[in-house]
Amino acid sequence: xxxxxxxxxxxxxxxxxxxxxxxxEPNSTVLDHADWxxxxxxALGYACFYSRRPGSGLDIGNLVCWQRNAFEVERPPWSLRLxxxxxxxxxxxxxxxxxxxxx
Length: 103
What we know:
Layout: H1 2-10, E1 14-21, H2 33-43, E2 46-52, E3 60-67, H3 82-87, H4 93-99
Antiparallel strand pairs: 1-3, 2-3
């Protein structure tokens, strides 16, 4: 709740949370922090995208949210590879075009 209160008080245009736990299962009885934050931030006017850390064996990832009234998504967020971008290891065509080859 303290994190949500700080976000609400600061009213940033973009919110990035890392190491966010997610079960990845829609009907799980375990608290899914990614779903909870997304629901709360949606109520505050944010759109969100969650990307689980690939290959880690852990149920954690990054949640990126933006104010819907301030930004327009030019391509579907599911085409973004946030974890790969963070590691600078993008080998897909779009990432190579935008960021150059990272090996």
